[in-house]
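In the previous chapter we treated chains in isolation. Here, by contrast, the input contains three separate entities that must be folded as one system, with a combined length of 972 residues.
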Amino acid sequence: MTTEVVGMTALPVGASRPRRAPLGRLLRSELRWVFRRPRTLVGIGLLGLAPIVIGVATLFVTSGVTGDPEQGPPITALGGSALTLPVISLSMLLLFLLPLVASIAAADAIAGESASGTLRGLLVAPVGRLRLLAVKMVGVMAVITAAVLVITVVAVVTGLILHGTSGLVTLSGTTLSLGESLGRVTVTVGWVLLQLWAVAAIALAVSACTEHPLVVLSTVIGGLIVIGILGSLPVLDWLQPFLLSDNWTAGADVLRDPVYTGDMGTSALRALCYLVIGYSLAVARMATKDS
Amino acid sequence: MAQAAPAPVALAARTRGLRKLYRGTVAVDHVDLDVPQGSVLGMLGPNGSGKTTTIRMLLGLTVPTAGTVELLGVPMPEQAEVALPEVGALVEGPGFHSFLSGRDNLLRLAAAEPMLAGKAIPGAVEDALARVRLTDAADRRFRGYSLGMKQRLGLAAALLVPRRLVVLDEPTNGLDPAGTREVREVIGQLHAAGTTVLVSSHLLAEVEATCTHVAVLHRGTVVAQGELATLLEAGSPALVVSTPDGDKAVEALRDKRIPARSLPDGLQVDLTTTTAPEVVAILVGAGVAVHEVRKQRTGLEELFARLTESGDAQPDVDGQEEGWL
Amino acid sequence: MNTKRMALSAAAAGTAAGVVGLVLVALPAGASAAPPNLPAISPEALVQSVLSAKVPAMSGSVSFDADLGLPIPGLPSGDKPIRVFTDGTGKAKLLLPTGPAEKSIVEDGKDVWIWNSQDQTVTKIDGGADKKFHGGMSEGMLADPQNAAATLVSEMRKDSNVTVDGTGWVADRSVYELVLTPKPTERTLLREVRVAVDSQLRVPLQLEVFANGQSDPAVKVGFTEFAPGAQDPKLFTFTPPPGAKVTERSGNDLPKPEEAKGLIDQLQLKVVGHGWDTVLVGKVPAGVLGATPQNGGDKHGFDPMQLIKSMGTKVQGPFGSGVAIKASVGTILIAADGRVAIGAVPQQVLVEALGK
């Protein structure tokens, strides 16, 4: 009835070495995909408006409060200058909107591809699972970086337009040059990126566990809210130094002169730990996942 | 089982003792599947019989709970990066991004193909699009594609690179008859070019139309496999005739030395020595009122009909009767 | 399976490393480090060296922790430490975080500048640096453990057992632990005062006050960072930012000793007892507590006496009646006639002091 089959007939395969598409090509393809996604573009665009809103609002608030005509133009108390506006914008957006963007990117990266059935296509191509995870991580980091850079550039330009190069005053009352100011803004940018990449690594691990992007979003954002509540309970003081979002206001410490590095350093190291943990869990999940 | 020692057949894919549990539920068990090289193997089974799970394990997407998988001679999923570059697949429907055009979707997949050199990518994508006749719609967003276009784009993705094995999971799902014909044409071309094709379907008609080999799955197990012709010819051919004049008909046929026997509302005619038109001509000539004539199911038909008609499988209404009688 | 097993091992190792790192980041550095091995020193020699030590050029961070069992307004709060810079010759800079804002005090060798980022104001005190400005600032005292500890040591030697109780680490520097415990005759709520003295520089780096029955210090002021070394001279200059409102005050505007004496006279301050059971007795000027039936509190409907009553307990004694507020390190007794007694002592000692 059936054709008899003899033993373990191994078919000679042309080359028995693993063959892989070049990593650079995969990365380019991923970045092209990520930055053509309408959601990514809209999200980054909206975040880019935030510094303008903050800058203009601060202008009204400060002129309302200290707008004494005899004193000339008020120097900006909060988000006015090309120094403070980017730092304050990033600090404010780090509390919710930037982690949201990071989570959405991570949710789309694996859970989203899984839901649309495109993950299978990549795995069958084949792209090795760990290579795919690395490519995905780079893609998510790229979205976050783009968002942060857009916010920063818009904030610096807005600050310069509203206040020129004067008024680059630190919280400690010293005045900085534009170069020094930009240097400090860069420190905050790097620090904010590290925090967000850590969020992304955790989100990517969650993303590898589900086919539903919304699950990733609600887990990560819900987690951050719960952590925020836990962090504010005096009973759980001991827990605070373990929480990723503890010290998330430390980005504004570059506005102190000299820069206060204590909290930023601690939270940067902590973010690095979360990054390693999140990525490791994502690796474990990707290696064993059924797709 | 064949009596004489047959020549060894090289296998493009092979599973032994394959078993997969999903949260305690057995999806497939004891699957020993052989996909001979150069064959077009139809994996036939009702929905939920374990076809897709088996295919996913073949491609290394899912790790078997037990058993072994060999794909193009290497174990899966361990050596996926050796075998998969030469395997094209369309699994569980076409998966594409709705915000990208058909061409951009293919370009993205092509970038991941190890067998494609960077410069060859645009050409390969255009060829694949042309092959499934999507060139005109290539710049439209995937979101706006019809079901058939989506399915064809999935097929194009499997054909981006010359393959040694192409795995197609329910490729004609949602296609109109014209689309179905196109898929059959593509399968025919692949077969002619020496590519092994593994195609799953819940329709015997489709398998019969395109395949050289068949494997029947039922409740997660292979219940029959082999060459299509062999399986179809098992059992002698016969014709079932509905008529109120059963006895008169049997008499008329026996006069012509054609074996026949009475049934409650008609008769069954053995076709070993004659053909259906001849039988009908004799009956009409004898003044028998013929209400209906149909071929009796052979071994494979009988088997598959039993499987699809049993309670645990939903017979698909879509094109079920096409190609019969 | 090989790749998979390797991936899983790497993932497990990575997760473990991350968790260990997290714990290391979260736990205070040196908390579990073995105490340093330092040559033995007598308490007398240590105290002597502290009293004669000179604060070198340094930068550091000071944090303040209080567990008094009472909310006390005006104490520095928040996570950010106070930062201190000095060039060792009297120029200094203090950065006091006030929530998200900052107060900056610069002593440039001639004048004192006070910058408040909240309202963007600058106060310049001409010649303030010559007048030893520190005295006017409670925050300055807290940020200056050198002075605080040195004063305490010399005062307490009369009534205390002074010992050197081993060594330890503060702000990553090896320290001697100078411990003062009250002599048995002292009637105090305090168990011991612990001063950590830098083993090389002989500068007090940390002051801890322990109350009876508490294992954690009731008050802890100390450096969390301490780095001796030359400082950037630019730190000790201050130019008011453009547009800031500058108020100039002469150093002569500061309270002079005679003015301070007048204030003390007005408060009728006197010291009862000595050593650990010193009690400060005074009289609150009429109206401050607003407890008169006529006004029934201030215009916002806030009656300070009500608050005091809600925090304290009623006390009767030879002095009359009053309310006592107890904290872990001390007690305040406010008599109905406006007299107030305060000390690091039990309530009974205050009652006696008021009776004198």
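The longest helix of chain A spans residues 129-163. Residues 23-60+73-288 of chain A form one domain. Compare these points with the single-chain example from earlier in the chapter.
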